[in-house]
Amino acid sequence: MNLVGIDRETLEQFFVERGEKKFRAQQVLQWLYQRGVTNINEMTDLSKSLRELLQNNTEITFPVIESEQVSADGTIKWLLSVGQDSDGKTNAIEAVYIPESNRGTLCISSQVGCALDCTFCATARQGFNRNLTAAEIIGQVWVADQRLRSLYSGKQMLTNVVFMGMGEPLLNFKNVLPVVNLLLDDFAYGMGKRKVTVSTSGVVPKIDELSQAVDVSLAISLHAPTNEVRNELVPINRKYPIEQLLAACQRYLDSKNRKESVTFEYVMLDGVNDSEKQAQQLVNLLKGIRAKINLIPFNAFDQSGYRRSNQQAIDKFSQVLMQNNIVVITRRPRGEDIAAACGQLAGQVVDRAHRGNHCMRMYERSLISRKIETECI
Ligand code: SAH
User: Fewest CB within 10 A of the end CB: N or C in the chain?
Assistant: First the structure.
């Protein structure tokens, strides 16, 4: 059993079943996630016999960093391997750290590949391979946290986590839930509920399950104001059309008396979903729902078949929303030079030498520009 990825309740059960005190779970979580200790022998407030029990029955394993790329804007992308397929191919995923002046956000993956086939997303092109385990998901946070500590000696912190990397988190709900619990747990990462965001393309029944299970921020990949356009861009819309999706959002807000809003992500695709008329349709659609809109200028990838909306169209679109009192944030593309922006995550271990060289160059440049001394990767 991997100790990584087990939330407090389950770990408490593990200890109680073995005649140990419940609070041992808190101690183990603190060692693992707050102090970054991976050697059970160093968990000195556990008795010798308990340490032996853990050593004989558990392991502590994390995803392994295959490469690290640092963008000119400070964004860091890690390619992490999570074991091999039966045919010997390495499974790899990506996690991206996005520093801003007042926070540091880690964007994590929940699946290897994705089954949803959104037409404008690079991850979709590789198809679905498998769900990540809870250890592999929280492991991304652990690895990033440790790297940031060693790179920046605690000056660049990880304050927020978004499930906006590869995969559809609500189609891996069983493993995403303990991870969310660990992110929120004061004995693990202790993040506030507004600092953890689960993003979904609209798996309606699972939105209700999430709502009952935990209190986190919800983001919806909406991308279109009508079923006609959304059916094309986000095929799961054919199963759960916009009306059902918005009704689920409303239930989410109503349950547990939530005060915050739902964030709607909207990728700006030239000539597809970016007209003034569509902005107005979006306003009408969201009437009555506490909503924030995140406009994401489309990030290109090879043979995507789409173009990013021009700045004028984005400005106009956001103006219409703002005039109707909707909070709009236009996401600044980050880490484009290392293909780390939204929708560019592909996570393949390809062309390693080339990536490695590029990575090293970027890495050195960023260290020089920020005069940070650290060990070499
Ligand atoms: N499957 C989940 C989690 C992925 S989140 C979801 O769909 O919400 C990744 C976000 O980036 C989603 O809003 C996705 O629609 C958006 N995205 C995907 N490809 C993109 C691209 N090429 N440019 C900009 N945003 C993109």
Answer: N
Q: Is the pLDDT of residue 359 over 50?
A: no
Give the global pTM: 0.91
- At 14-56, the pLDDT tens digits run 999 999 999 999 999 999 999 999 999 999 999 999 999 999 9
Distance (angstroms) between ligand 1 centre and the Cα of 189 equals: 25
The protein residue with its alpha carbon nearest to ligand 1, atom 12, reads: 221
Which atom of ligand 1 has the smallest separation from the CA of 114?
A: 1
Could you report the per-residue pLDDT of 321-348, keeping only the tens digit for each?
Answer: 999 999 999 988 888 888 877 767 776 6
What tokens appear for 97 in the block?
């750290």
| 8-57: CATH, from 1.20.120.80, 3.40.50.1100, 1.10.357.140, 1.10.150.530 | 1.10.150.530
Between the CA of 345 and the centroid of ligand 1 the distance, in Å, is 10
How confident is the model over 165-192, as pLDDT tens digits?
A: 999 999 999 999 999 999 999 999 999 9
Q: Which residues line ligand 1 (CB under 6 A)?
A: 118, 120-121, 164, 168, 199-201, 221, 265, 267, 296, 298-299, 342-343
Q: Of these residues, 121, 249, 342, 359, which one is catalytic?
A: 342
CATH of 64-375, one of 3.20.20.70, 2.60.40.1120, 3.80.10.10, 3.30.930.10: 3.20.20.70
Nearest Cα neighbor of 177 from 13, 62, 7, 32 is: 7
